[in-house]
Structure formats: C-alpha cells, structure tokens
Amino acid sequence: MSTVMVLNGPNLQRLGTREPDVYGVVSLPEVAEALQGAVPDGIRVQVTQTDDEATLIGWLHVAADTRSPVILNPAAFAHYSYALHDAVRIVTTSGVPVVEVHITNPAAREEFRRESVVSPAVTGVIAGFGTDGYLMALDWVVRRWSGKQLPAAG
Predict the structure, then answer these.
(1) What string of H, E and C letters represents the secondary structure of the chain?
(2) Which residue, of 13, 19, 71, 136, has the greatest Cβ tally within 10 A?
(3) How far is 91 from 101, CA to CA, in rounded Å?
(4) Which pLDDT does position 153 carry in this prediction?
(5) How far apart are CA 21 and CA 1, in angstroms?
(6) pTM for the complete prediction?
(7) Which residues, at least 6 apart from 113, have a Cβ–Cβ distance to it below 8 Å?
(8) Residues known to be catalytic
(9) How does pLDDT run along the chain (154 residues), one tens digit per residue?
C-alpha cells in the first residue's frame, strides 16, 4: 500500500462553517493536514471531495484497480445511493478495505439519516466521533493493510 484514498461526498467542502454546532469547526483541509501528519513514512493520504455521485463512483473504481484502501464519508449519498453501494462492493469484494466514516452519529439524527445503504457493502463503520473518526479509520487501515502502527496521538 502506498496510498490511502479518503473520499468525501456532498457538502463536506463546507466543514468548519456548515452547522458548526452539528459538524464541528474543523475544515476539510484541516482534516487532510491531520491525516497527512498521522501516516507513517511511505504511505500517502489522498483526500478528495465531490458533490457529484458519478465522480465518487469513479474514484472507487480507481481504488479497486489500484488496490488502494478507502476511507469514505459518503455524506447524504449514504442514505439512498445504491450505485455507490455497488461501487463500494467492487472494492471490498476485491479484498480492499473501505471504512465508512460519519462525523455525526446518524442513528441519533433525523429518521431519514438513520439508514445507510452503503454500510452493508463496507468493511466497517465509524460514526459519531467528529472529524477524529477519519484518524480512527486511518489508524485501522494502516495497521490492517500495511502492518504498521501509527504513532500515538498527542
């Protein structure tokens, strides 16, 4: 493994300013910086964001083709995109992990947010820990996929 793909769905470019009481004040560039600072030498983190479902699906195809593990925050696509579910399955059935991350706890939110049609296709889900969920997912991916332990936070 040389690259971990961190894929973000709609509206996540607004992190830090969009409903900070719900999503926090950390921006997506700050998340990317924290992830870059947390990986061991020899591993690259590629953080991308799109509001376009087709683009996100295309990135998942790249992950399958390059055998790059994925940290995926599908955002609102989680609740209705069966196409995204199918693209995730392409990655996971090829033996490459995909960790679904949600900044908030969808189970504690509005009814329509409580089900993810993507979750059945992913390797695991981390939700409700704010943007720290990205770091938790990265730690798991690096340890599972490369056998390397991330340095302790702090």
Answers:
(1) CCEEEEEECCCHHHCCCCCHHHHCCCCHHHHHHHHHHHCCCCCEEEEEECCCHHHHHHHHHHHHHHCCCEEEECHHHHHCCHHHHHHHHHHHCCCCCEEEEECCCHHHCCHHHCCCCCHHHCCEEEECCCCHHHHHHHHHHHHHHHCCCCCCCC
(2) 71
(3) 16
(4) 39
(5) 36
(6) 0.89
(7) 79, 106
(8) 23, 102
(9) 589 999 999 988 888 877 777 766 688 999 999 999 999 889 999 999 999 999 999 999 999 999 999 999 999 889 889 999 999 999 999 999 999 999 987 765 667 666 789 989 999 999 999 999 999 999 999 998 765 444 443 3
31 to 20, 110, 112: CA distances (angstroms):
15, 25, 26
CB atoms within 10 A of CB 149: 10
Q: What is the reported pLDDT for 113?
A: 67
- pLDDT confidence of residue 20: 74
For 125: left if phi > 0, alpha if psi spans -120 to 50, otherwise beta; the answer is beta
d(CA 27, CA 114): 24
